[in-house]
Design goal:
alpha/beta, seven-stranded mixed sheet, Maf protein
Length: 241
């Protein structure tokens, strides 16, 4: 997991905190009218999530969340992904509020690989990636990707989890090393990039959203954007992209 880059802000539940008032100083919901299109901010420095969000063709910015990604004692992999996605979105929304920004829609996301209940994060180096792929060969692994969206001006907040089940081939050490030297996926949970050469390591993928495995479930993301009043299709049709 990545080292902490600053104070960790984690919501106690899935509701917007009562003191998280609109950045503009407007009255809270109940007569609140938000601008048509918020400022879209991806709370991540991941190039994979950035590339995925670009598929929607909308203008957005990125902001680095200050979140300690260390698992809590006994925390399940899916719970870890959900907690970190919420923490990232809330931390970035808090940063933007401190900078006086107005209507923003923040997207936070996290992915954790789950091997029989054990969380597998980013290996960071060759030795860690080799150990992960050796442990996963011939087995089924669940990749839990959580996405959290917050629009403080309207107090919208929602978090969803999309899980993808991946079955790895019975790989030899030579195959694993050949892949790792070719692709060097040391910044990926589970040490494999299924969207590129990593696909040759697999027997099967079961998913309701193929983008979830890459790092940002766009089906869930676009659904929450619609709920938040920022329908991607309407946004583009209005000529805002």
């Amino acid at each position: 997991m990545l080292a902490a880059r600053g104070p960790c802000v984690v919501p106690d539940n899935t509701r917007m905190p009562e003191d998280f008032l609109p950045l503009s100083g407007a009255a809270p919901p109940g007569g609140l009218t938000a601008p048509a299109w918020p400022r879209l901010v991806l709370g991540s420095t991941s190039v994979y999530r950035r590339d995925l969000l670009q598929r929607l063709g909308l203008p957005f910015e990125t902001c680095s969340p200050r979140v300690d990604e260390t698992p809590l004692p006994g925390e399940a992999p899916s719970a870890l992904a959900l907690r970190l996605a919420q923490a990232k979105a809330l931390d970035v929304a808090t940063q933007l509020r401190a900078r006086g920004m107005g209507d923003v829609l923040v997207i936070g996301s996290d992915q954790v690989a789950d091997l029989n209940g054990a969380a597998l994060g980013k290996p960071g180096h060759l030795e860690g990636a080799l150990a992960q792929l050796q442990a996963m060969r011939g087995r089924e692994v669940a990749f839990h990707t959580a996405v959290s969206i917050m629009r403080p001006l309207t107090r919208y907040e929602a978090t969803r989890l999309v899980s993808v089940r991946v079955r790895f081939r019975q790989l030899s050490d030579d195959e694993i090393l050949a892949y790792l030297h070719a692709e060097q996926p040391f910044d990926c949970a589970g040490s494999a990039k299924a969207e590129t050469l990593g696909i040759v390591l697999l027997d099967a993928i079961e998913s309701s959203d193929p983008t979830a495995l890459i790092g940002l479930p766009l089906i869930a993301t676009s659904a929450m954007m619609r709920e938040a009043g920022a329908d991607p299709l309407a946004w583009r049709a209005a000529g805002q992209a």
